[in-house]
């Protein structure tokens, strides 16, 4: 299965996740997957849902991994097709206010961690994207950041704002990275771990007494919502976030209370010339 994932150029994090799910499936039944079929898959998924009480989104990951295992590695697509996708509720993503983002940044003591968090928020980057940035990806002449190998393996460009560029320069002077990695890890050739960034965010949220859930992805949601509230076209937001479908980006419309508040009700124009002209 590991070779099949690599041949299809799945990202390392996805490979690790799929393999972890497949190993859990085998460990539950204590026999090789070649000897199991749909009944065993259903029993395992029911165990996860009813006894482990995993979230719907987590169950979705298990289903994706098992579908890949049976359809690709074992060559049994009839089993893969019959595995049901769980219905995942569309919850409104949490969003920080501008004041909360500013307080969070001020509460981060490390220059390196603060620069990573500001870059993630200021450019709407996923945690893997910001941690993997290279020095050559920063184009200060055109005010662009080159995001390489994003989700689904696609590259894109995002804005390089003045505050982010200033922070990156301060980080560069303090850190002086020896290799191409902008945010290197402890081992040569590695990048800073995702957990190190998450831990810095949790500690900053504790310091400034934020009671909202704060994660790198919350920063990304906040970036998109704040852009919408500033009047940015949703198609531009889609391109900046690297969404393949506008439907994913539309989720942020539901989040933005300011956007809703600025929307005029048709009741406001009833009986006016504008209503006769536009509403008939």
TrEMBL record:
Residue ranges occupied by any Core-binding (CB) domain in the UniProt entry: 1-74
PROSITE patterns, per database record: CB, TYR_RECOMBINASE
SUPFAM superfamilies: DNA breaking-rejoining enzymes
Domain Tyr recombinase: 91-265
GO terms under biological process: DNA integration; DNA recombination
GO molecular function per UniProt: DNA binding
Alphabetical keyword list: DNA integration, DNA recombination, DNA-binding
Family indicated by similarity: Belongs to the 'phage' integrase family.
Protein's name in the database: Integrase
Native organism: Sorangium cellulosum (Polyangium cellulosum)
Upper lineage: Bacteria, Pseudomonadati, Myxococcota, Polyangia, Polyangiales
């Amino acid at each position: 299965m590991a070779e099949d994932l690599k041949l299809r150029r799945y990202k390392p994090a996805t490979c690790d996740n799929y393999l972890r799910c497949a190993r859990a499936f085998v460990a539950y039944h204590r026999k090789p997957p070649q000897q199991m079929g749909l009944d065993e898959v259903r029993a395992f998924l029911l165990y996860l849902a009813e006894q482990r009480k995993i979230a719907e989104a987590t169950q979705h990951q298990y289903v994706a991994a098992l579908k890949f295992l049976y359809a690709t590695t074992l060559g049994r697509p009839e089993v893969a097709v019959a595995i049901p996708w769980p219905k995942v509720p569309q919850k409104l993503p949490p969003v920080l206010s501008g004041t909360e983002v500013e307080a969070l940044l001020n509460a981060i003591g490390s220059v390196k961690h603060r620069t990573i968090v500001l870059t993630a928020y200021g450019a709407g980057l996923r945690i893997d994207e910001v941690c993997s940035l290279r020095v050559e990806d920063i184009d200060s002449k055109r005010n662009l950041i080159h995001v390489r190998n994003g989700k689904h393996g696609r590259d894109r460009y995002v804005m390089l704002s003045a505050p982010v560029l200033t922070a990156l320069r301060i980080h560069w002077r303090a850190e002086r990275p020896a290799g191409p990695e902008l945010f290197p890890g402890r081992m040569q050739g590695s990048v800073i771990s995702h957990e190190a960034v998450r831990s810095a965010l949790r500690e900053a949220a504790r310091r400034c007494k934020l009671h909202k859930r704060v994660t790198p992805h919350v920063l990304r949601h906040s970036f998109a919502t704040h852009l919408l509230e500033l009047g940015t076209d949703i198609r531009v937001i889609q391109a900046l976030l690297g969404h393949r479908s506008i439907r994913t980006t539309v989720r942020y419309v539901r989040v933005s209370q300011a956007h809703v508040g600025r929307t005029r009700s048709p009741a406001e124009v009833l009986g006016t010339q504008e209503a006769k002209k536009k509403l008939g």
